[in-house]
Q: What sequence folds into this?
């Protein structure tokens, strides 16, 4: 598996994988372009993709996705703190806190440590940007609660649970949850990792 920084040339494949895993409307080109800008600070890119090197040449020939997963991360100070965040419970000040937007791995490749490798690559990048901790909203209803499990294994600590975090009425989105459809009531676990 090759872990490398995300580039604009990868956007279409990232959108397709994100919508397949998380639900239609999860990502589109304007939202991903905005997310991309929020992850760059001091000329350091905090977004990463995982490429399956064994499939790369085959997929290139077939013009299919070779992206096995991706990690989108906002640099500290580059993202809006909204009502779903609890900064008074964070161990560091908001200007030192990056935001782990999402970690996505193709279903057939889960359980191989790809998500953890992507997270570690992003942590290294945001530390170089100046962050001392990172916060994320983990999808509690992910298969076998794997999102919370891997983040906990990486050192994440639960700050607060937010029921119905991704409900379409809350953010006026066209997002279709893969579990709930157009009326999402999944819970987001706000979790923080402090960097060593």
A:
């Amino acid at each position: 598996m090759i872990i490398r920084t995300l580039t604009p040339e990868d956007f279409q494949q990232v959108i397709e994988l994100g919508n397949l895993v998380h639900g239609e409307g999860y990502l589109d080109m304007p939202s991903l372009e905005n997310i991309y800008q929020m992850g760059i600070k001091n000329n350091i890119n905090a977004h990463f993709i995982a490429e399956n090197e064994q499939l790369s040449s085959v997929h290139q020939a077939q013009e299919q996705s070779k992206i096995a997963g991706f990690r989108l991360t906002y640099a500290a100070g580059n993202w809006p703190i909204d009502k779903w965040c609890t900064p008074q419970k964070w161990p560091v000040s908001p200007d030192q806190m990056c935001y782990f937007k999402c970690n996505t791995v193709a279903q057939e490749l889960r359980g191989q440590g790809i998500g953890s490798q992507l997270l570690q690559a992003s942590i290294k990048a945001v530390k170089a940007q100046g962050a001392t901790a990172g916060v994320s909203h983990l999808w509690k209803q992910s298969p076998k609660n794997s999102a919370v499990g891997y983040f906990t294994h990486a050192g994440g600590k639960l700050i607060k649970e937010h029921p119905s975090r991704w409900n379409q009425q809350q953010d006026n989105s066209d997002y279709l949850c893969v579990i709930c459809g157009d009326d999402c009531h999944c819970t987001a676990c706000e979790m923080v990792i402090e960097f060593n």
Notes: The helical segments are 11-22, 29-38, 53-62, 114-129, 146-153, 168-171. The chain has one domain: 2-194. DSSP finds six helices and nine strands in the chain.
